């Protein structure tokens, strides 16, 4: 079992295999294949918050090849960087990832270096539209242009005992995405967090209970703003210490789509039908075990992933109101296309459901699960342990569908988050 920090570091490294080759001069830069906003910002001596401000970007991962970015404040008065979280603003991403993988990372918040204006090269691990702007729905490319940033919250200058350091990866929270919270302690303690009404538990690094991590999530429909992030620490001696931090939640425009269903399928739109099934899936995915079963970035469930419907997109059926959203990614797949486990896990469900059709849910530990729906045939059974890349079924058109495909979900404590955030990069 590895720490969440190590996992996100690997994901970051995968996203940065083609670093920006920008000239460190000039006032504009044209985005090239493989570029990330963080890499471009670093090349021109900017923070992520500054380049977001210069270009009115609502999501740091929403850049696309050929986009011309402003990279100079010539004639523009810079505002205070609105990124709230304590991370190292000067670390090289390559050096930092190598340090993390070697267990010598210093990219964490200390009382001496804490800042509300910090920028982290890790922020592009959000992955939401780094992937989708290249290969998914055009709706995600039309993200809102007004940046959702907040400057009216102050990060504390010191942390109470027993906290030694802490860090967040990625350093911002966005609608429909997850983030890791890493805490290093001066003494062994039991940690739990509360965020947006959901309780989260921490799990320790193997052999060192003073280094702990948790995975948290932001619901797609959460209003952008600043919300309290609460931490409760219970020491072995029985002392309870509480800390509340101001966490900024940014907005993402996931777009809209209308789906036309045949008359034979309209009965599946009954609210009670979808509610009961959704509650069951949420309950299965809301369990927590302090066991991390995955080992690296997740793979896509099909060999050649082609997205047909994006995560988070607002949906209407047969011209009705936009009163639901897509809780996963749809991948094109003909009847019989093999479907594989995205990572190691335990099968918690393998059966036919009303809306999702033939479905499998895998428990990856520490509150993380993945679900695979609409399959024609299942090849695993409940309780079975599976490994990354193992065949779990075949694509089909069961349940509420308009054509054969694979619906892939990822959930943190039952909350749907963008699976692309955790997945290997697709060129």
Largest sheet: 10 strands, antiparallel
Assess the beta-strand content as a share of residues: 25-35%
Percent helix: 10-25%
Number of helices: 6
Terminal-residue CA separation = 29 Å
SSE order, one letter for each helix or strand:
HEHHEHHEEEEEEEEEEHEEEEEEEEEEEE
- The average pLDDT is 74
Instruction: Give me the count of strands.
Output: 24
Low-confidence stretches: 1-25, 77-152
| Rg measurement, Å | 21 Å
Give the CA-based shape.
globular
* Computed structural class: alpha+beta
Describe it for me?
The chain has 427 residues and is α+β, with helices and mostly antiparallel strands. Helices cover 14% and strands 32% of the residues. The protein has helices at residues 4-15, 37-43, 48-55, 93-101, 128-135, 271-285; strands at residues 28-30, 68-70, 163-169, 173-174, 178-185, 189-195, 198-201, 203-205, 208-217, 225-235, 240-250, 256-259, 307-309, 314-317, 324-325, 329-332, 338-340, 345-353, 357-365, 368-378, 385-386, 391-395, 405-412, 415-417. Strand 8 (203-205) and strand 9 form a beta hairpin.
What is the element layout, followed by pairings?
Elements: H1 4-15, E1 28-30, H2 37-43, H3 48-55, E2 68-70, H4 93-101, H5 128-135, E3 163-169, E4 173-174, E5 178-185, E6 189-195, E7 198-201, E8 203-205, E9 208-217, E10 225-235, E11 240-250, E12 256-259, H6 271-285, E13 307-309, E14 314-317, E15 324-325, E16 329-332, E17 338-340, E18 345-353, E19 357-365, E20 368-378, E21 385-386, E22 391-395, E23 405-412, E24 415-417
Helix pairs in contact: 1-4
């Amino acid at each position: 079992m590895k720490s969440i920090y190590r996992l996100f570091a690997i994901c970051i490294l995968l996203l940065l295999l083609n670093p920006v080759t920008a000239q460190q001069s000039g006032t504009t830069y044209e985005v090239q294949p493989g570029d990330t906003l963080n890499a471009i910002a670093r090349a021109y001596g900017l923070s992520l918050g500054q380049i977001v401000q210069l270009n009115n970007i609502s999501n740091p991962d929403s850049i696309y090849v050929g986009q011309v970015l402003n990279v100079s404040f010539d004639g523009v008065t810079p505002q205070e960087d609105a990124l709230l979280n304590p991370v190292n603003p000067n670390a090289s991403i390559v050096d930092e990832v190598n340090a993390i993988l070697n267990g010598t990372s210093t990219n964490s918040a200390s009382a001496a270096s804490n800042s509300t204006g910090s920028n982290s090269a890790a922020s592009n691990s959000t992955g939401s539209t780094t992937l989708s702007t290249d290969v998914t729905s055009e709706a995600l490319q039309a993200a809102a242009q007004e940046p959702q940033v907040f400057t009216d919250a102050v990060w504390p200058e010191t942390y109470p005992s027993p906290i030694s350091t802490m860090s967040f990866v990625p350093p911002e929270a966005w609608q429909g995405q997850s983030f890791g919270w890493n805490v290093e302690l001066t003494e062994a303690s039991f940690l739990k967090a509360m965020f947006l009404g959901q309780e989260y538990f921490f799990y320790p690094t193997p052999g060192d209970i003073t280094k702990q991590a948790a995975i948290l999530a932001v619901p797609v429909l959460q209003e952008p703003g600043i919300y309290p992030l609460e931490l409760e620490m219970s020491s072995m001696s029985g002392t309870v210490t509480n800390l509340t931090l101001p966490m900024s939640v940014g907005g993402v425009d996931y777009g809209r789509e209308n789906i036309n269903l045949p008359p034979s399928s309209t009965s599946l739109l009954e609210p009670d039908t979808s509610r009961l099934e959704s509650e069951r899936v949420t309950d299965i995915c809301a369990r927590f075990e302090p066991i991390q079963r995955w080992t690296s970035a997740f793979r896509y469930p099909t060999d050649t992933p082609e997205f047909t419907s994006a995560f988070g997109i607002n949906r209407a059926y047969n011209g009705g109101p936009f009163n639901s959203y897509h809780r996963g990614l749809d991948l094109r797949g003909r009847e019989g296309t093999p479907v594989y486990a995205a990572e190691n896990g335990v099968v918690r469900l393998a059966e036919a459901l009303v809306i999702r059709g033939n479905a499998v849910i895998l428990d990856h530990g520490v509150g993380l699960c993945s679900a695979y729906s609409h399959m024609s045939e299942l090849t695993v059974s409940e309780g079975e342990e599976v490994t990354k890349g193992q065949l779990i079924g075949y694509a089909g058109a069961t349940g509420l569908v308009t054509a054969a495909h694979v619906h892939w979900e990822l959930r943190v404590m039952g909350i749907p988050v963008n699976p692309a955030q955790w997945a290997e990069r697709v060129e």
